[in-house]
Amino acid sequence: MELWIVTTLIYLINIPFGYWRANVKSKSLQWILAIHIPVPFVILLRIYSDIGFAFYTYPLIVGAYFLGQYTGVKLSRSRKQSGYFTTSCLVMDYYRSIKSN
């Protein structure tokens, strides 16, 4: 697997966790879990994609990790500003939005 595919997957994995993090109290257990649960997935992707832990991969992987978290937070905030009912689950919120229309 190529580095850009792994970077994209890490970005996509972190979006729901950033969304979750935006809807819980800062520095609570759920907030900490929303940040740290994706880490094993990142490690597994690095191992099974054969990109390893070379130094040149770290800026892309770390950047994708934080950008995914940031995107999730922005999605949550934009939904709240639009007046949608928002919970901590991105998938269920969008499912309910589609179902109600």
Gyration radius over CA: 15 Å
Strand residue content: under 5%
Q: Fraction of residues in helices?
A: over 70%
* Helix/strand class: mainly alpha
Q: Tell me about the largest β-sheet.
A: none
Report on this model:
This protein is mostly helical. Helix content is 73%, strand content 0%. The protein is built from 5 helices and no strands. Helix 1 runs parallel beside helix 4. The longest helix has 24 residues. The protein is elongated and about 45 Å long. It starts with a helix and ends with a helix.
Topology:
Layout: H1 3-22, H2 29-36, H3 38-48, H4 58-81, H5 90-100
Features:
mainly alpha; single chain; elongated; 101 residues; 5 helices
In short:
The protein is mainly α. Helices cover 73% and strands 0% of the residues.
